[in-house]
Amino acid sequence: MNLAKLVEAHFRESRSTSGLVMTGKVVLGVAVVVALLLAATLIVYAPSIGGAAGTTTTKTVTQTQVLNSVVNLGNSTSQGLNPEAIYAYANQSIVTLQGVQTTTTNTIFGPQTTQATILGSGFVVDYSGQYYIVTNYHVAGATSNLTVTFSDGNAYPAKAIGSDPYSDLAIVTASSAPLSEFHTLTLVSSSSLRVGQYVLAIGNPYGLSGTETFGIISQLGETIQDPSAGNFSIANIIQFSAPINPGNSGGALLDANGSVVGITTATVSGSQGIGFAIPSDTILREVPSLITNGSYTKHSYLGIGEVDMNYQLAQAAGANVTYGAMIETVVPGGPAATAGLVGGTKTVTIEGSQYLIGGDIIVGINGTKIINENALASYLEGHTVAGQRVNLEIIRSGSNYMSVLLTLGARPPI
Fold first, then answer.
1. If both were cysteines, with which of 230, 274, 275, 324 could 361 make a disulfide (CB 3.0 to 4.6 Å apart)?
2. Residue limits of CATH 2.40.10.120 in the chain
């Protein structure tokens, strides 16, 4: 199905854009894994050591025909799920992306430049009758000498025409590849995903092209930290149990119908069965701008540093709530400062960590309860755009409930 029509349907369904909150405490580190597999930090992004990958479908055989033995499980059991049929259909769409990333580091001897080979995954979509490859920003967004290898082993020069480091997304074209190489996957809304739902991941871990793994949705609405996104987190993330490894970045996360519900992005170093994916709603929202303008500039911005509220912080701050996002710092001149929100005034140490207490506690936004940072970031990501006016529900001075109108700002370009 043409992605442009899916995007239109998505916007009719929910008028969300994206937005994240500047986080006060960075817990998750991120590492791009390059040719030598420098997998040293907590969150490992999955460009890896490459190999051929695949493409997608626009031939006479339709998705329904190929998957006629696949039962639409929704949130049901695995009975009727047919990973073999899904793979036969979807693997044609998975491609390998390879290129070079150059990094300049300032040292006591002056600037030092290093180059590393990047390999990752991607998948093909149809937007307005044209074929594009969707992948991660950390795979292709800042990569030179980019090439794409299709599932039949044929490789062609490629070019990133649009990218968004805030969502770790990039759009790639391969204009010299014949149309016969492109087999498209269908993106569907991720808004109906539920914890426990079965999913499959297809990508190129460690260059082992066209590898399929199987698991469930483990959690929704997570956030991860990405160095390429500056001090901002990537929110509304899908956590899943299907194993992924370096090289899976940019691959497809598929539901029981073989439709894309996310793009596999990161895993936790040393973990088993903890993977993260950018949801398809984010892709559907951003694709038109990434293709047309080369960027996406509607990420909303509060201008705060915040931390999860908990029982210990509530006791220290004398607050009457143990949930919410407690504001530690307010960026001068930012949207929160303009609206009169208050940051912390007193430093306390709890279980070895320092916190600024005394600031406002965000407990709701536009009538939606906010229980922690993840909930706040995910709401902004899924339901707001820069320039939008929102109603924040806060607790001030420990027990005073207030409602504050605030106009969201836009994040600066990276």
1. 324
2. 3-293
Q: What is the pLDDT of residues 233-267, one digit of tens each?
A: 899 999 999 999 999 999 999 999 999 999 999 98
Active-site residue identified among 126, 168, 226, 255: 168
The residue among 19, 22, 17 whose CA lies nearest residue 337 is 22
What is the C-alpha separation between 188 and 280, in angstroms, rounded? 7
Q: Determine the Cα–Cα distance for residues 265 and 278; give it in Å rounded to an integer.
A: 7
Separation CA 181–CA 92 (nearest Å): 9
Question: What residues contact 250, with CB distance under 8 A and at least 6 apart?
Answer: 46, 47, 97, 120, 121, 122, 123, 134, 135, 136, 139, 140, 203, 263, 264, 265
The helix/strand/coil state of 107 is: strand
**What are the pLDDT digits (tens) for 46-73?**
544 333 333 332 233 333 333 333 334 3
Query: Is 138 a known active-site residue?
Result: yes
**DSSP per-residue codes, 151-171:** TTS-EEE-EEEEEETTTTEEE
Question: Per the residue annotation, which of 10, 138, 299, 383 is the catalytic one?
Answer: 138
Query: Please, which residues bridge with residue 100 across strands?
Result: 117, 144
Residues carrying CATH 2.30.42.10, the chain = 300-410
Dmax (CA) of the chain: 67
Tell me which of 3.90.950.20, 2.60.120.620, 2.30.42.10, 1.20.1560.10 is the CATH number of domain 300-410. 2.30.42.10
Q: What is the pLDDT of residues 288-332, one digit of tens each?
A: 999 999 999 999 999 999 999 999 999 999 999 999 999 999 999
Q: Which residue has the higher pLDDT, 199 or 71?
A: 199
- pLDDT tens figures, 132-161: 999 999 999 889 999 999 999 999 999 999
Choice among 249, 259, 280, 378 that is catalytic:
249
**Cα dihedral sign for 284, 289, 294, 298?**
negative
Q: Identify whether 226 is a catalytic site residue.
A: no
Could you give the angle at which helices 280-293 and 3-13 cross, rounded to 10 degrees?
Answer: 120
Average confidence (pLDDT) over 205-231: 89
User: Class of 3-293 per CATH?
Assistant: mainly beta
| Annotation says 168 is catalytic | yes
CA-CA distance, 28 to 232, in Å (whole number)? 12
